[in-house]
């Protein structure tokens, strides 16, 4: 059953291999009968289309390729940051204004009653303009990089007109509150991401000595520290192999570090993999390594998607006390948290899980229970739907008022 109004979700790119948490939520809303469309600023490569996301393809509007090119050119020109109010008229301003206007026109035939953007970058600015054109409210889900690498002024410019802002971690919520001060008072709400327990592999009775890691190969993921931790493990004689799934700008740097430490036979850079392939690797893993750190530009992780997927599969996590990760992983109960950048502690925690099967099983079971209790997607998505003003019970959805609703 479908409730109206129609919600327009604005995303940077679809399909997108690294943002499955967004499309997982949209699929959950589809199962609830919520009527929506997706506006993607850029079209992702076809090989990034996950089988599970195929039902969303028919609901997605892709902008003509010339539109994001205009925005890219505008970003390259000198002038005040795009999205700031009261700017002088410059080529940068004119080109970006044309982009916003053309995008709004591209969805003019849709019956939109709410616009919601993922990330407080271009999607949030576009959502604000579409909402203004249609005379409807807009809202934004903030995640990690958008909170941490933007200045308070940039965040306020992107979010000040929003009906509400959804944060997916307490850490992100607190950081956004501190950066925007009173501008968003009473409008920031916590609604966590989640995973589908039924789609996660069942815990393995006898795991192989596999340490799995997955994520974009960027500084904040801390994979250089994992390489050095693996060197320490190899020096102790513990049997293991490490697979790092993902791609990014640091791939060559990591390959050189692996080679420089003589770990080519121990660590494999596997490149991008589908969620199904990652699930297969998780099914046989002894541990998930997520050695997150604060990047030099201030970026930190929220709760990486792979952390929740591993915990749901009964795989204990070795991570760092960074960003929102301590909200999911409890040190010594369902995983381990090392100080960020502490290679020795990472190695020590991984060694325990590789050599102590009873501990690994107990922590894996606790991790699975944690996700069932706190990160079940069907339960958590109702918080976000509630912010849209919809009351959802037993698969039915009714229109409710957005005004005055405050949830966490």
Which runs of at least 5 residues are low in confidence (pLDDT < 50)? 390-408
The helix/strand class is alpha/beta
Main sheet: strand order: 3-2-1-4-5-6-7
**Helix and strand sequence:** EHEHEHHEHEHHEHEEHEHEHEHEEHHHEE
Name the CATH homologous superfamily of the largest domain. Answer: Glycogen Phosphorylase B
- Beta fraction: 15-25%
What overall form do the CA principal axes indicate? globular
Largest sheet: 7 strands, parallel
What fold name stands as the CATH topology of the largest domain? Rossmann fold
- Estimate percent helicity: 25-40%
The CATH class of the largest domain, by name, is Alpha Beta
> What is the overall number of helices?
15
How far from one another are the termini?
Answer: 26 Å
Mean pLDDT: 87
Second CATH tier, the architecture of the largest domain: 3-Layer(aba) Sandwich
- What is the β-strand count? 15
- Gyration radius, to the nearest Å? 22 Å
**Total number of domains:** 2
């Amino acid at each position: 059953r479908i409730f109206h109004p129609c919600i327009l979700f604005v995303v940077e790119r679809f399909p997108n291999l690294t943002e499955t948490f967004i499309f997982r939520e949209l699929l959950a809303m589809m199962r609830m009968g919520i009527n929506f469309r997706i506006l993607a600023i850029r079209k992702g490569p076809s090989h990034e289309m996950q089988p599970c996301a195929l039902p969303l393809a028919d609901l997605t509007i892709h902008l003509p390729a010339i539109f994001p090119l205009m925005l890219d050119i505008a970003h390259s020109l000198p002038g005040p940051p795009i999205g700031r109010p009261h700017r002088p008229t410059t080529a940068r301003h004119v080109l970006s204004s044309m982009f916003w206007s053309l995008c709004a026109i591209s969805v003019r035939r849709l019956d939109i009653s709410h616009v919601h953007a993922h990330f407080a970058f271009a999607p949030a600015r576009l959502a604000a303009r579409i909402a203004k054109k249609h005379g409807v409210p807009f809202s934004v889900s903030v995640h990690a990089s958008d909170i941490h690498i933007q200045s308070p002024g940039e965040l306020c410019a992107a979010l000040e007109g929003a009906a509400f802002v959804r944060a997916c971690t307490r850490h992100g919520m607190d950081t956004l509150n501190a950066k925007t001060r009173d501008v968003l008072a009473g409008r920031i709400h916590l609604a966590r991401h989640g995973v589908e327990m039924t789609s996660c592999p069942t815990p393995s009775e006898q795991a192989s000595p596999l340490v799995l890691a997955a994520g974009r190969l960027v500084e904040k993921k801390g994979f250089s520290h994992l390489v050095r931790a693996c060197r320490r493990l190899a020096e102790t004689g513990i049997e293991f192999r490490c697979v790092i799934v993902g791609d990014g700008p640091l791939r060559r740097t990591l390959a050189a570090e692996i080679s420089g430490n003589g770990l080519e036979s121990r660590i494999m850079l596997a490149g991008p993999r589908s969620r199904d392939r990652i699930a297969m690797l998780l099914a046989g893993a002894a541990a998930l390594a997520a050695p997150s750190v604060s990047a030099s530009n201030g970026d930190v992780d929220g709760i990486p998607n792979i952390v929740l997927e591993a915990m749901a599969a009964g795989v204990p996590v070795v991570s760092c006390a960074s960003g929102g990760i301590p909200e999911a992983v409890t040190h010594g109960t369902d995983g381990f948290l090392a100080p960020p950048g502490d290679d020795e502690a990472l190695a020590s925690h991984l060694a325990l899980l590789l050599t102590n099967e009873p501990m690994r099983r107990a922590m894996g079971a606790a991790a699975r229970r944690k996700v069932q209790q706190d990160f079940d997607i069907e339960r958590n998505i109702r918080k976000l739907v509630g912010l849209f003003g919809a009351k959802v019970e037993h698969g039915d959805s009714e229109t409710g008022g957005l005004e005055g609703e405050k949830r966490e």
